[in-house]
Amino acid sequence: MPLVAGVDTSTQSCKVVVRDAATGALVRSGSAKHPDGTEIDPRHWWDAFGAAAREAGGLDDVAAIAVGGQQHGMVALDAEGNVIRDALLWNDTRSAQAAEDLIRELGDGNRDAGAQAWADATGSVLVASLTVTKLRWLRDAEPDNAARVAAVALPHDWLSWRIAGFGPAGDPDAPLGPQLDKLFTDRSDASGTGYFDAEASGTPHDGTPPGAYRPDLLKLALGRDDVVLPRVLGPSEAGAVAHPSVAGSAVEGGALVGPGAGDNAGASLGLGMRPGDIAISIGTSGVVSAVAPTRTADGSGAINGFADATGNALMLAVTLNAARVLDAARAVLGCDVDELATLALAAPPGADGLVLVPYLEGERTPNRPDATGTLHGIRLATSSREHLARAYVEGMLCGLADGLDALRAQGVPIERVMLIGGAAQSPAVQTIAPQVFGLPIGIPEPGEYVADGAARQAAWVLTAAEDPGAAAPAWSTTVATTLDADPQPVIREQYAAVRDLV
Q: What whole-number distance in Å separates Cα of residue 185 and Cα of residue 68?
C-alpha cells in the first residue's frame, strides 16, 4: 500500500511520521528540535524538517505529504522570496497594544463594539497571538520592513511551499525560486490570521471551499492590501507536488502536498474528533477545543471560532501557560517529573487554600498579556513542597477549566472529553483533572496527534486525487485510559476567588 507522511512543525520541534495510507499504521518517524524563543528565522524550521525527515528514513517513498503547524506566526516575504525579518510566533506578545488599537478602530473608538465586530467578521476577538496584530506592529515599529512585504505566510504555509521546491531566489534548496503565487494554505490556519472569514460562502459549483480573505482588515493592519496571501484549499485538495529532492522521488508522479492545517485542527483530525467532542491539550500552550458544525462569534474573546481541517468549525479557548507551568514547578522545587507528581498527590485537593494563578508569561485567555503569576494563601501550614506542587498543577488545570466553561456558555455541545499532550501522562494530572473538570475523561494512546492528523490528511488527498468525493480515511484512535469524574468543588471555588487579583 502507498505510504504518506505527516509533519508537525511546532513551536518546539519538527516531527515527521510515515504511515500506511490505508490503515494508518506507523512505519517510521523522526524529530528535530527548534530553537527557543518567540521569534525565529524560519530557516531553522526548514533545517529541522530535513533532519527529522532523515531520521525517519527519508521521504523518497511517500506518495503524499502534509504539514500541520503552529498557528498565527507571521512570515513576511519580499518579492524575491526572502524572509524579511525573523518570524514572530504566536506566543510573542509585543503586538498586544496593536490588538487593542485594531479593536477600537473597527469599533469606531468603542472597544466593546469593536470586539464584537472582529468576532462577527473572523470568529475571534483580537489578541497579540493573531497574525493581523503582528502586521500592525510591523507597520508601526519597523516601517521599512513593512514596506518590503510582498507576501505573508504562516509557518505551515511557508514549509509546504519550501517542500514544493519554492523559496528565496538563488537558494540551492529552492530550485523553483520565489513564486509567491504558489503559496497555499487551508481554512483552519487561515481562520487564525484575523483577516479571513471562514464562514463566507464560496462561489456556487466552482469547488471553492467556504471562506474568504478580508482585504479591508488586512489593510487596516498593514496599511495596504496589495500583498500576496496563500491560496486557500479545500480539505482534501493537493496544493502542489513535492520537489523530488525533498519527497516522492521513488513514486510515480511524485508526492502530492496536502493543504496542511493549523496545529489544533491537525490534532483534531488525528484524533478523529466529531461534533460534540472536546479535546483538552496540555502542551506549550493549553487548548480546549471543540468541533461543531458552525463557529461562534464570541465578543467576549473567551472563545476563538476557527475552522477545522474537515469542513466543520473548531472552537478554541487557548491559554499561554500550560505544561510550562509544570516545568516552572519542577525548577522551583528542584525535582523531576515523577517527583513532582508524587509531591502534588501528597497534598489534599485545594492544597489547604494555597492557590496559584499561573499567568507566568502573561495570558491569552483571559486576555492579560502583561499579567504575572500570583500565589495566594501562603501560610506556615501551606509552606511545603507538597502544597506548592499541588497548587501549580491545580492552577494550570483551573485555567483550562475556565475555557471549558466558556465553551458551555456559547452553547457548544460537550459529549466526550479527551485529555492529550505530554503532561496528560502525569499521574498527578490524571488524578487532579477529573477533580477540576468534574467530568469523565478519556486519554488516547500517546501519539504525535498533529503529525498523525497531517498524515491522515495526506492519505485523504491521495484518495481524493482518484475519487474527489472520498471521505477522510477512517483511521482508529484508541482510548487507553478512562478516568471517572471526581468533582472537588473547593479547587475551582478557591481559584475563582483570586484569579482576577492580578
A: 10
Q: What 3-state DSSP class applies to 408? A: helix
Instruction: Check the CA dihedral 475-231-295-222 and report its sign.
Output: positive
Is 204's pLDDT higher than 50? no
| Helical axes 337-345 vs 427-437, angle rounded to 10° | 40
The rounded radius of gyration (Å) of the Cα atoms in the chain is 22
The closest of 294, 267, 219 to 451, measured between CA atoms, is 267
Confirm if 221 and 241 have CB atoms less than 8 A apart.
no
Whole-model pTM: value is: 0.88
CB 69 within 8 A of CB 154: yes
| Cβ neighbour number for residue 470 with a 10 Å cutoff | 15
State phi, psi for 19 to the nearest 5 degrees. -130, 160
- According to DSSP, the residues that pair with 66 across neighbouring strands are 6
- Residues 134 and 39: their CA atoms lie apart, in Å, by 11
d(CA 132, CA 41): 19
Cα atoms found within 13 Å of the Cα of residue 382, Cβ hemisphere only: 19
pLDDT at 478 over 80: no
How far is residue 243's CA from residue 167's CA, in Å, rounded to a whole number? Answer: 12
Contact 262, 123 (CB under 8 A): no
Backbone angles phi, psi at 184, to 5 degrees: -145, 160
20 is catalytic: no
In this predicted structure, the answer to whether residue 187 has a pLDDT above a threshold of 90 is yes
Distance between CA atoms of 401 and 144, rounded to whole angstroms? 43
The length of the chain in residues reads: 502
Residue 205 has pLDDT above 60, yes or no: no
CA distance 223 to 104: 16
- Dihedrals φ, ψ of 65, to 5°? -145, 145
**Nearest to residue 419, comparing CAs of 267, 317, 281?**
281
332-370: pLDDT as tens digits: 999 999 999 999 999 999 999 999 999 998 887 887 888
CB-CB neighbours of 97 under 10 Å? 16
- For residue 119, give the C-alpha cell: 468576532
* 402: its cell numbers: 475556565
CA dihedral 231, 141, 130, 215 (to 10 degrees): -40
- Closest by Cα among 117, 109, 155, 162 to 134: 155
**DSSP structure string for 78-90:** -TTS-B-SPEEPT
Beta strand segments in 230-303, E? 231-233, 240-241, 256-257, 261-262, 277-282, 286-292
Q: How many CB atoms lie within 10 A of CB 246?
A: 22
Of 263, 352, 402, 452, which residue is the catalytic one? 263
